[in-house]
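Tip: read the tokens left to right.
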């Protein structure tokens, strides 16, 4: 029996339910440390973080710790296995006595139970030699420098024309500075791993179950660090409870778990405590952004200048690329985007959902709103007026760009043109009045595609097995990949069995940069298209092992067409501001997107709404502060770091326009996981200004920040 075409086969674009949905809600989906059968000799590990901000470990007293009931071992910088130096120095844990920041792991306790491991870790005594530290980012920091590149490989500085001269000569301009604090990913499932060594010395095999956005990169790093061929390392990331970029590259927990398993000769589980996540798995770096916009009196931009100051750690250079969106958005003869970075004694920043775009578009789109106010121009029309014919920075034509359609459709759906455009026009004199305002912002995110491989096998029972080492971090990737396969084969969705999340499956890139489906789906489409051709030519029953086809898109995906490829969107927000308390409530959010072909409306809407909700958190609730004396993040749990909940946005809508783009991939799809966050914070901030007449330029807009300026009735300077 072979798979046969049927009219019931779901074409791409059908709102299919998640294939793993029932497993997740019934608890049968197994995450990294939730093995169905935990070995009886499994041990548990618990890390010991440094309590100084900068210096060296001088001694580790393990006497009391090893006397704790159930204790098995304490790994220290002097007793831990020696590893090959990784490319990412964040992974060089317990390899020397240096302490680059508070919270850096200086020991690891291993015990019979989780409770015993915690008790053992608490009994470890560490001695230090401290050194002076600096953890404070300022715009004029004397150690600031311009790096060669920002994150993503972008040149840190690009300039066209003469920005200073053109700005001075312009009839209208704004010169404003915006600040965003450190932000943290905080996935529901903390970073966790299970590690087991099998075999004999010289031929041992490492198996790891890891909460990661990419099993392949984890395998490569572990193989290098433990000096193993990659075929002797297996990494499984079948179900992942969120990542938002924090799990985009290997993190210290997986190295520590493998080290502990090798040291003790037993399988080891390690799940990081939530209080450690702020310091050891990356975060969105704080930014100070100066934006200068100049225009003719009709609103035509003449200058777009975006200068970013951010921070990185002493051990690793990571530069948040917040100025890059300004190279994409608006036509202007004079432009500047520049990044300066300061090395501080802080944890290493890393990817957080929509790195660069989320931070940079908040500043740029807030400044566009300020310019619209100065000109007396509608903010939607100002953006449309400065729509570029080609990508401003590169001069490349856009593969597709329907931002104007998103703005117009969003304005129609939102009822934008019914509002009174005057800021604080509805502000009465009575104390305690709740004011209402609306705001708009545009959004963009690049189209990223990486090479991938996949296999598809038609089986005698009529099913088709598709394998690709993709990772589903809650996005619905399993379901969409199965839809791509079913569409290419012309078979029902329920006849496709999709296998992902393991290095035992064909090589594939990590889930990041909104590139997963575009990358994996291309390979799945090609493999299934080839299998369909083989089935057409095949006569007789299928062999016992089935009939297979494979695909490798290295050549196709590597041949980038000469186009600027981006997704675009428009965000609209309505807020209510209580002038007695300073509390800001979002009553409505609406987004309209141009993101290529939408492959599954159900999962796509979920992704858009999730991103918008995360943008709301960025605008109103989420922030972190570094204690200057101790060098640690003050907000280290979900009680102090406030993530938005359902009640924080009672009315949220996501829509999209039909967009065909032949310069992407066989499905015609763009990434959708991150663009939802990009413009949301600016739209909310602009709505708060419209409601109050007061311009706030530092996030988040918490009551303690809003109320004093409301009482003063002046803009933040």
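Filled-in amino acids:
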């Amino acid at each position: 029996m072979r798979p046969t075409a049927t009219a019931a086969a779901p074409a791409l674009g059908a709102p299919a339910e998640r294939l793993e949905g029932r497993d997740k809600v019934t608890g049968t989906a197994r995450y990294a440390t939730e093995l169905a059968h935990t070995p009886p000799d499994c041990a548990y590990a618990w890390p010991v973080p440094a309590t100084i901000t900068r210096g060296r470990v001088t001694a580790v007293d393990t006497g009391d710790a090893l006397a704790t009931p159930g204790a098995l071992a304490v790994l220290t910088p002097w007793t831990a296995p020696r590893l090959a130096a990784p490319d990412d120095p964040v992974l060089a844990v317990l390899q020397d006595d240096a302490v680059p920041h508070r919270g850096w792991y200086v020991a690891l306790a291993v015990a019979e139970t989780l409770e015993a491991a915690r008790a053992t870790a608490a009994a470890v005594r560490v001695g230090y030699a401290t050194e002076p530290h600096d953890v404070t980012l300022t715009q004029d920091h004397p150690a600031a420098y311009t790096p060669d590149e920002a994150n993503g490989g972008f040149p840190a500085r690009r300039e066209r024309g003469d920005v200073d001269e053109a700005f001075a000569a312009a009839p209208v301009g704004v010169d404003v500075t915006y600040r965003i604090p450190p932000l943290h990913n905080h996935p529901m499932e903390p970073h966790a791993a299970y590690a087991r060594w099998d075999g004999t010395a010289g031929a041992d095999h490492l198996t790891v179950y890891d909460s990661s956005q990419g099993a392949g990169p984890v395998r490569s790093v572990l193989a290098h660090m433990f000096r193993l061929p990659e075929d002797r390392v297996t990494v499984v990331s079948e179900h992942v409870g969120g990542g938002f970029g924090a799990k985009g590259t290997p993190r210290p927990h997986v190295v520590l778990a493998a080290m502990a398993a090798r040291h003790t000769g037993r399988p080891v589980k390690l799940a990081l405590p939530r209080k450690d996540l702020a310091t050891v798995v990356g975060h969105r770096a704080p930014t100070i952004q100066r934006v200068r916009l100049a225009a003719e009196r009709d609103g035509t931009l003449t200058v777009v200048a975006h200068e970013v100051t951010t921070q990185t750690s002493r051990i690793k250079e990571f530069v948040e690329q917040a100025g890059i969106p300004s190279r994409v958005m608006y036509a202007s003869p004079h432009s500047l985007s520049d990044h300066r970075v300061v090395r501080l004694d802080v944890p290493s920043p890393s990817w957080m959902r929509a790195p660069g775009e989320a931070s940079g578009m908040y500043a740029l789109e807030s400044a566009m709103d300020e310019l619209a106010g100065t000109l007396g121009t509608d903010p939607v029309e100002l953006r449309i007026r400065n729509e570029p014919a080609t990508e401003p920075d590169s001069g490349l034509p856009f593969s597709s760009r329907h931002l104007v359609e998103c703005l117009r459709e969003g304005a129609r759906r939102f009822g934008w043109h019914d509002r009174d455009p005057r800021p604080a026009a509805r502000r009465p004199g009575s104390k305690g009045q709740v004011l209402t305002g609306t705001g708009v912002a545009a959004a963009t995110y690049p189209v990223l595609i990486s090479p991938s491989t996949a296999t598809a096998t038609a089986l005698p029972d009529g099913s088709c097995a598709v394998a690709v080492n993709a990772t589903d971090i809650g996005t619905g990737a399993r379901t969409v990949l199965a839809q791509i396969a079913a569409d290419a084969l012309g078979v029902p969705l329920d006849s496709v069995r999709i296998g992902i999340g393991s290095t035992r499956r064909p090589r594939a890139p990590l889930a990041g940069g909104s590139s997963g489906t575009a990358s994996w789906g291309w390979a799945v489409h090609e493999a299934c298209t080839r299998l369909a051709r083989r089935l057409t030519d095949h006569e007789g029953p299928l062999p016992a092992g089935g009939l297979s086809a494979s695909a490798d898109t290295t050549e196709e995906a590597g041949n980038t067409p000469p186009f600027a490829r981006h997704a675009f969107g428009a965000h609209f927000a309505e807020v209510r501001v209580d002038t007695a308390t300073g509390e800001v409530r979002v009553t409505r959010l609406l987004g309209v997107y141009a993101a290529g072909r939408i492959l599954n409306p159900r999962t796509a809407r979920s992704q858009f709404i999730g991103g918008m909700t995360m943008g709301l958190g960025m605008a109103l609730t989420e922030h972190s502060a570094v204690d200057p004396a101790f060098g640690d993040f003050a907000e280290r749990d979900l009680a102090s770091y406030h993530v938005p909940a359902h009640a924080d946005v009672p009315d949220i809508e996501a829509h999209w326009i039909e967009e065909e783009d032949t310069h992407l991939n066989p499905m015609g799809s763009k990434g959708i996981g991150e663009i939802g966050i990009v413009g949301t914070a600016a739209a909310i901030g602009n709505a708060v200004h419209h409601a109050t007449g007061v311009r706030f330029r530092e996030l988040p807009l918490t009551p303690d920040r809003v109320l004093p300026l409301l009482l003063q009735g002046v803009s933040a300077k």
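The domain at 398-447+565-717 is CATH 3.30.365.10 (Aldehyde Oxidoreductase; domain 4). The chain has a mean pLDDT of 95.
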